[in-house]
Design a protein that fits this description.
Number of strands: 5
CATH architecture: 3-Layer(aba) Sandwich
CATH superfamily: Response regulator
Structural class: alpha/beta
Number of domains: 1
Length: 130
């Protein structure tokens, strides 16, 4: 299961269409605080998080997830418009496994969710799941 955290409803809808079409179960949050609450309440294979959000910055959310025992096992991917190398370094320092710059190609997004999937064989026709 994927958790996508982004303050843009258009971005959330776009990524939902890509991932759900591929058979992934996706939940959403529109800010870092809500994303952290959802993370604490459910098990996710991957958390995809934007950086510039209200209520809690994406880097702070990544740090908070990584400080949790369950947060050591989840894949965290930053998906941001911030393309400068200093932003990428900050994302990795916060604890992200990957840093992707928007717009993300649909096939790349699907591969990332499959890569962090814990349970293979659920979710789509290729034998790979989210």
């Amino acid at each position: 299961m994927c958790l996508f955290v982004d303050d843009s409803s258009a971005v959330r809808a776009y990524h939902a269409s890509i991932l759900e079409e591929d058979g992934h179960q996706v939940e959403f949050a529109d800010n870092g605080y809500e994303g952290l609450e959802k993370f604490c309440a459910a098990d996710y294979d991957v958390v995809l998080v934007d950086i510039n959000m209200p209520r809690m910055h994406g880097y702070d959310m990544v740090r908070a997830i990584r400080s949790n025992e369950r947060g050591q096992k989840v894949g965290i991917v930053v998906v941001s418009t911030e393309a400068d190398s200093k932003d990428m370094v900050e994302g990795y320092k916060a604890g992200a496994d990957l840093y992707m710059v928007k717009p993300v190609k649909p096939e790349e997004l699907k591969r990332v969710c499959i890569m962090f999937s814990r349970t293979k064989g659920e979710g789509n026709d290729t034998g790979e799941g989210a």
